[in-house]
Design goal:
It is a single chain. This protein has one domain. About 70% of the residues lie in helices and about 0% in strands. It contains 15 helices and no strands. Helix 2 runs antiparallel to helix 5, helix 6 crosses helix 7 and helix 11 runs antiparallel to helix 15. The chain starts with a helix and ends with a helix.
Length: about 325
């Protein structure tokens, strides 16, 4: 009961029943066969993301089936997410179990688990280790921070692209909440860093999308573009106080939410500029896949705020990503 209380009733039950459901009723998905082939043929030295291949090789030789391997990834990642959420105490405690907050959080968690821990398991396993890293980092002791570093390295050698993006989307604002005192200098350093990483990441995504495969060669369609640029910009203009850095009101991890919102808005503006200039005519789908990773920090930010009214941007991210992802499964 203590674990449920600390993780949050809505969060814990959503993860618990999502785990049971996806174990009993595996979702047919286009990635199943591809990952199954990797599992049955994986050999050491034949892949640049060596840790994932090593685990495939290890578990296969130990007699585990591919479905058992997938189940272990699911349990590993669900445990990490549950424990991480248990470390995050909401700024405003929800007064009711059933509310808009609980609905948004439940939808966000279930879809996130489905997308990354059931379907895109290689990226999901990397995310799971990244969650363990954040959990250990939050404990503030040198040996646990060493464990956090080990988890980050393993996450990188499981799925380098995902780990690299999460370092930007999650680790940077997370680190700025944990280390150093709030000051104008820290604020200016963070803003300067956001300009650098936004330009660098979007430039890389637009120039290196071909590496991800021809199935990602497609323009950013108008509906997607609106949902990733104009709509969040409009929400931000209405509720810009959400991103104010006010150390007199928020301290520690509670600063994660405004820091994350600012980072997301930088990426939104950068993507809008690229779209208007016609730079996403072929890299659109690759960029969309990267933006779905924002669901993870959005879950953390919403959890830290405790009510959706105080977290409109994370709420929008979770609901829009869930809507588009479920729509993408219609042909499966």
């Amino acid at each position: 009961m203590n674990v449920i209380q600390r993780a949050g009733f809505v969060e814990f039950t959503s993860l618990f029943f999502a785990g049971i459901f996806f174990v009993i009723y595996p979702v047919a998905n286009p990635d199943y066969e591809a990952y199954s082939v990797i599992y049955s043929t994986a050999e050491l030295g034949g892949d640049w993301e060596v840790f994932y291949i090593y685990l495939n090789h290890l578990f296969r030789d130990a007699g585990f089936t591919y479905d058992q391997f997938r189940l272990l990834i699911l349990l590993f990642s669900l445990t990490a997410l549950s424990l991480l959420l248990s470390r995050l105490k909401p700024l405003i405690q929800p007064k009711r179990v059933f509310s808009i907050y609980s609905l948004v959080m439940a939808i966000g968690l279930v879809v996130f688990v489905l997308e990354y821990f059931v379907i895109r398991i290689r990226a999901g396993f990397s995310i799971g280790m990244f969650m363990w890293a954040l959990y250990f980092l939050n404990r503030k002791s040198w040996y646990k921070e060493l464990m956090a570093l080990v988890m980050l390295v393993l996450a990188y050698f499981t799925h380098q692209f995902t780990a690299s993006m999460l370092i930007v989307f999650v680790f940077i604002p997370w680190a700025f909440t944990l280390y150093g005192k709030s000051s104008k200098l820290k604020k200016y350093v963070y803003m300067g860093l956001l300009i650098f990483v936004t330009f660098g990441c979007l430039y890389y995504l637009n120039s290196a999308y071909a590496v991800r495969g021809e199935n990602l060669f497609s323009p950013l369609n108008p509906v997607r573009a609106m949902s990733l640029t104009l709509i969040p910009l409009a929400i931000y203009c209405i509720s810009s106080a959400e991103a104010e850095l006010r150390p007199e009101l928020f301290s520690g991890l509670y600063m994660f939410h405004p820091l994350f919102v600012r980072l997301y808005m930088f990426f939104t503006v950068g993507l809008a500029i690229m779209w208007l200039l016609g730079l996403t005519n072929e890299s659109g789908e690759a960029i969309v896949r990267v933006f779905t990773l924002f669901s993870f920090p959005a879950i953390l930010a919403l959890r830290l705020r405790g009510v959706f009214v105080e977290a409109k941007i994370p709420t929008f991210i979770l609901l829009s990503n869930a809507l588009f992802f479920v729509y993408s499964l219609k042909g499966v």
